[in-house]
Amino acid sequence: MAALKLAIGNKNYSSWSMRPWLALRANDIPFVETLIPLYTDDPQDKEQILSFSRAGKVPVLVDGDITVWDSLAIIEYIAERYPEVKLWPDDADARAHARSVCAEMHSGFVALRSECGMNLHRPIRPVALSADAKANIARIEEIWRECRTRHAAKGPFLFGRFGAADAMYAPVVHRFRTYAIEVAPDTKAYMETMMALPAFQEWTRDGLAETLVIAKFEDA
Ligand SMILES: N[C@@H](CCC(=O)N[C@@H](CS)C(=O)NCC(=O)O)C(=O)O
Fold first, then answer.
1. CB 108 within 8 Å of CB 143
2. How many helices (H) and strands (E) does the chain have?
3. What letter does residue 160 receive in the DSSP assignment?
4. Ligand 1 atom 2: the closest Cα is on which residue?
5. Taking Cα atoms as reference points, which of 43, 24, 22, 12 lies closest to residue 195?
6. What distance in Å separates the CA atoms of residue 29 and residue 145, rounded to the nearest whole number?
7. Which of 109, 139, 128, 217 is nearest to 179 (CA)?
């Protein structure tokens, strides 16, 4: 069987790419990665993204004749293709909750995402945040707290074992870290759990080793 292929962007910046990459790597699912530099002056880079998907965005997963684009669709596909890794919780209630928090991440938190873009090599320092971004942070802390309170007995991740929700919120861990966001002790504890995950560390190491700078994603 041909290996899965995952097209991703720069690991330093591409938060959408990080999510399905982590879902695969944290579960030891083999795949071949194609890293395409984003927002360069070389039109061939965009052409390469378009050769994977006419949506013109990464991440894109290719499984033989099947192409899946968009982070959440890819995570759903992985969950279906590899049911044994249990990206979604077994319990229907918990599964509905996990799907809801993933969808909330995928479609929301616009202020936090735009004011605190993922940028692994950014020197750690705070930034002035809008009221909307502060509300996003408070809501994320609330989501994590509720998940952890309900599922603490099953393991240290949002729904006990590592799953889709952890993958979807992983870039937020970097955002909270690099923008020195003041968070509650239980939020910090969950961030530490994520930062200790070998797959999270591998992505971070690779991203920090990149030298390509995207000027529009760098703050002063
Ligand atoms: N909703 C999409 C968003 C994908 C997205 O915005 N990807 C960015 C990188 S993080 C991209 O491909 N940008 C390159 C471009 O627009 O040329 C998802 O969840 O995958």
1. no
2. 9, 4
3. B
4. 70
5. 22
6. 29
7. 128
Sites in the chain below the pLDDT cut of 50: none
Q: Which residue's C-alpha comes closest to atom 16 of ligand 1?
A: 57
Amino acid present at 8: I
Atom of ligand 1 nearest to the CA of 106: 19
**Which of these, 75, 68, 67, 73, lies nearest to 21 by C-alpha position?**
75
Order of strands across the sheet with 31-35?
31-35, 4-8, 60-63, 66-69
For residues 200 and 70, give the distance between their C-alpha atoms in angstroms, rounded to a whole number.
20
How many angstroms is it from 93 CA to the middle of ligand 1? 31
Residue 219 is predicted with a pLDDT of: 83
The pLDDT value given to residue 2: 75
d(CA 59, CA 19): 9
Domains parsed from the chain with CATH numbers: 4-85 (3.40.30.10), 92-203 (1.20.1050.10)
Q: Is the CB of 57 under 6 A from ligand 1?
A: yes
